[in-house]
Every structure is written in C-alpha cells, then in structure tokens.
Amino acid sequence: MEAALDKYLEYTAHTTILDMNSMDLSTSIIASHNLPAFRMFSIDGGHTLEITLHDLNLASCAVAPGGIVILDDINNSHWLGVATAAQLFSTLQDNLVPFLQIANKLYFTTQSHHALYLDFVQTSMPELKCGNLVTSMHPSRVSWGQWRVCHGDMTTASQ
Ligand SMILES: C[S@@+](CC[C@H](N)C(=O)[O-])C[C@H]1O[C@@H](n2cnc3c(N)ncnc32)[C@H](O)[C@@H]1O
User: Fold this and answer.
1) Is the Cβ–Cβ distance between 20 and 47 less than 8 Å?
2) What is the per-residue pLDDT across 15-31, written as a single tens digit (0 to 9) for each?
3) Number of folded domains in the chain?
4) What residues does 151 pair with on adjacent strands?
5) 16 in ligand 1 pocket by Cβ < 6 Å?
6) What residue owns the CA closest to ligand 1's atom 5?
7) Are 26 and 58 in contact (CB under 8 A)?
8) Under a CB-based contact definition with an 8 Å cutoff, are residues 70 and 100 in contact?
9) 147: domain range?
10) What is the pTM of this model?
C-alpha cells in the first residue's frame, strides 16, 4: 500500500495508515490521530451486511460536510450484503445520502450537498438516468426514498 501511495500520490509522508480491522475502528481512534474530517472515504473491505453497515456508520461520523463516501461492490451479486446494508443504512439515518450509482459503486454525500452534487452529475453526465427507484443486481428493486440517484451500468432508474 505504501508503494502504491508513493507511486500515485507522492506524499506518503502525510499519510496515516491504520492497519486494522474496520470493526475495531471507531471515531475516537480516528480522533486520537488528529485527523481532520474526511473529504473522501472509500469502503471496500468486508462485504457482509454487518461490516458494511458498520463501515457506513463510521463514514457518516467521519466525513466533512460535502465529503464523498464511495461504497464498492454495490452491484455484486455474490455479495448482496453490500446493497442490503446500503438500503438499510438509508432507512436508518439521513446524514449520508446517495446521489450516484455507477461502475459498481454507490456514492454518498452529506444531505447538505446532495442537490449540488446531483446537479453536477446530471450536467456532466446527461446520459445517466436519475430517479428514486433502482433496478439492479439486487433481487429486489431498491428505493432511495426521497433521494434522487443517477445511475449508469447495469442499473435503470424510474423517474
Ligand atoms: C475486495 S478487497 C479490496 C481491497 C482494496 N480496496 C482493493 O481494491 O484492492 C477487500 C479487502 O478488505 C479486507 N477486509 C475484509 N474485511 C475487512 C475489515 N472489516 N476491515 C479491514 N479490511 C477488511 C479483505 O481481507 C480484503 O483484503
């Protein structure tokens, strides 16, 4: 990982690596490292319902307003816990809300920035369909409630 950071980002000296199971990671541990609120948070670890839900909750507490949380494998039929967790998470809270599903990833931001990012996505990728209901690899159709999400790939959206 250090080698990849060095190669692609070239500022390893400013990188903090917490080499641990995310289930043991908490906001207090993050705070103890004096890290600022995250502008980007990628979730691509354990793909079970329990771990994904934990990681989403952690991300929700750790991102800055307007930060982006990227949930990988949202469309992976072998790991339905990811999509199930995303759906459950969306019914349990409204701090982090989804705005884009593309390339097997679901993108969230804080509620305060949802309209801004949705507008940006719609303007820059007019080929995407945007709506509140998605049909994807998940066996059931997924509703994002009041939140409109733009979709690409193997998903279709109802307006
Ligand atoms: C799908 S791979 C993705 C790895 C990396 N993000 C990439 O794209 O190359 C998932 C990795 O997360 C690790 N993992 C699984 N559960 C985890 C957890 N709760 N905390 C941290 N890592 C975990 C797995 O061992 C595996 O190496």
Assistant:
1) no
2) 888 999 999 999 999 99
3) 1
4) 101, 129
5) no
6) 44
7) yes
8) no
9) 2-157
10) 0.91
